[in-house]
From TrEMBL:
UniProt name for this protein: DUF4331 domain-containing protein
Lineage: Bacteria, Pseudomonadati, Bacteroidota, Flavobacteriia, Flavobacteriales
InterPro entries the UniProt entry points to: DUF4331
Pfam family, one: DUF4331
Entry keywords, A to Z: Signal
Species name: Winogradskyella jejuensis
Signal peptide bounds: 1-23
Length: 189
């Protein structure tokens, strides 16, 4: 009789634990529930045009640049960009020197200091193809080489004859083909 009471007590305890620990969680979402805007967010980095912030913003000014709204960046940072460009590139050694776009150092850095990715909604989308300039960016665009040409290449267009060793990153294609469907990125390794 005592053994049956112990079995009954253990069975009751097992049923009680099972009932209290189980819940009806079928109605709960099992994955992300959407964007959560609670909390505090801070702008960490602006990278509208790859490498521009990295190359032209002085270390002591990174936080200021990254938290400045783009419409105010050119006014606040163009002089610093121009000084850094002229110190970096021999293609702008003489007053009036221009790049492949025909822009002087002041004009070019005025454009670069507003770190946004421009986009053409009704034309060719490209970073630079010799005709269309900063009208967007396709995945296959060789953005770094284009930037190197505009910084170091001088006035001779895409030939970059003034400083050929500095005007090409020598990476001519992605390591894997891009997908033909959205999001168009190459598959991971």
């Amino acid at each position: 009789m005592k053994f049956n009471n112990i079995k009954l007590l253990l069975a009751s305890l097992l049923v009680t634990v099972t009932i209290t620990s189980c819940s009806n969680d079928d109605d709960r979402p099992t994955g992300p529930t959407g964007i959560n805007f609670t909390g505090t967010f801070a702008q960490q980095d602006q990278m509208g045009r790859p490498a521009v912030n990295t190359v032209f913003v002085s270390s002591s000014m990174k936080d200021n640049f990254n938290t400045t709204v783009p419409s105010q960046q050119s006014g606040a940072f163009q002089t610093m960009f121009q000084n850094n460009l002229e110190a970096l590139s021999p293609a702008y050694a003489n007053p009036g020197d221009a790049n492949a776009l025909g822009l002087t150092s002041a004009q070019f850095t005025g454009l670069l200091a507003t770190d946004v990715l421009n986009l053409s909604l009704d034309g060719t989308t490209t970073f630079f193809d010799g005709t269309n300039v900063l009208t967007g960016r396709a995945l296959a665009d060789d953005v770094i080489t284009v930037e190197l040409i505009l910084i170091f290449g001088g006035e001779n267009g895409l030939t970059a004859s003034e400083n050929p060793g500095l005007s090409d990153d020598n990476v001519n294609a992605n390591d894997k083909p891009f997908s033909s469907s959205f999001p168009y990125l190459a598959s991971p390794w």
